[in-house]
Specification:
about 55% helix, mainly alpha, single chain
Length: about 240
């Protein structure tokens, strides 16, 4: 399909060169809260045998939720270094929470520190197996590393956890279409992205139309005539005087 004269629309398979753009589309902040799996209520500490009662207490690390909110604000304002430092400190002070690990992974992924991003996001899903945001970003990283099967599994996991995850639909559609060459499988994910995002993006509309046109052309193409059945074999000729 040719682009219109008003805007240049890349051909579908040129998206292979645009996969890094997925990261920019997925820049939205972590949708997960600070807490992956909430610790139980705190109880007064009981002195251990041999421990002196009234010994100096551990320094107050502050309210983790307030610190997390402040770090998110830094991330929203694109104060990347300060946000990264804040999330890193949170992950050290409160390592049981998945949120700081998720957002650290996003920041690392956006700055092309792949190994750090994979480590942080793996920790995030370990702490919170229902973390669809982290699974979507793992899919992005696997896709960038051309590990397409693992990328597909990560996107599908994100959608299992949240079928309304628009970006996971978009990323999975591109993976299926441009890399795995399965446009028919990609089509419902493009449509889901259009519906969930509420956006009429020209490029996505063009890709959907191109796949639909190809499918229609394939359906309407004349089917090859079946090969004629072979003629039945003739019975062997009997020699006069021979016994049948």
């Amino acid at each position: 399909m040719k682009p219109s004269s008003e805007a240049q629309v890349p051909s579908r398979h040129s998206r292979i060169r645009q996969t890094c753009g997925i990261v920019l589309l997925a820049v939205g902040l972590s949708a997960c809260s600070l807490i992956g799996s909430k610790p139980g209520p705190s109880t007064p500490a009981t002195p251990k045998p041999g421990q002196v009662k009234g010994a100096p207490k551990a320094p107050d690390k502050g309210d983790p939720q307030q610190r997390f909110g402040a770090a998110l604000e830094l991330m929203k304002k694109n104060q990347v270094q300060d946000a990264e430092a804040a999330f890193k400190a949170l992950s050290q002070d409160f390592p049981q929470y998945a949120g700081p690990w998720t957002n650290l992974g996003i920041l690392y992924a956006r700055s092309k520190r792949r190994d750090l991003a994979l480590t942080a996001l793996a920790q995030a899903v370990k702490l919170n197996p229902s973390n669809g945001v982290a699974y979507n970003w793992l899919g992005v990283l696997y896709s960038e590393g051309k590990d397409y099967n693992r990328a597909r599994l990560a996107y599908e996991k994100a959608l299992d956890l949240n079928p309304d995850h628009a970006l996971a639909h978009y990323n999975l559609a591109i993976l299926l279409d441009a890399h795995l060459r399965q446009p028919a499988a990609a089509l419902p994910h493009y449509r889901a992205y259009q519906k969930l995002s509420g956006k009429d993006e020209l490029k996505v509309m063009a890709w959907v139309a191109e796949i639909e046109h190809a499918q229609k052309a394939a359906d309407e193409a004349p089917k090859p005539a079946p090969a004629p059945a072979p003629a039945p074999a003739k019975p062997p000729t009997q020699t006069p005087g021979s016994t049948p």
